[in-house]
Amino acid sequence: MKEYIGQINGRTRTCGLVGNPVEHTMSPVIHNSLAAMFGQNFVYVPFHVRDGLQEAIEGAYALNILGMNVTVPYKSEVMQYLVRTDAKAEQIGAVNTLVRTEGGYVGYNTDMPGLYRAMEEDGICLCGGQVLILGAGGVARAVALLAAEKGAEKICILNRTLGKAQDIITELSEVLAETKENGTPELLALPLSEYEKLGGEEWIGIQATSVGMFPQNEDVIIKDAGFYQKLKAGYDLIFNPYETKFMKLVKAAGKPAYNGLKMLLYQGIIAYELWNGVAVTEEQAKEVFEAMKKEMKVQ
Ligand code: ATR
Question: I need a surface site. Which of 29, 72, 79, 124 has the fewest CB within 10 A?
Answer without folding.
Answer: 72
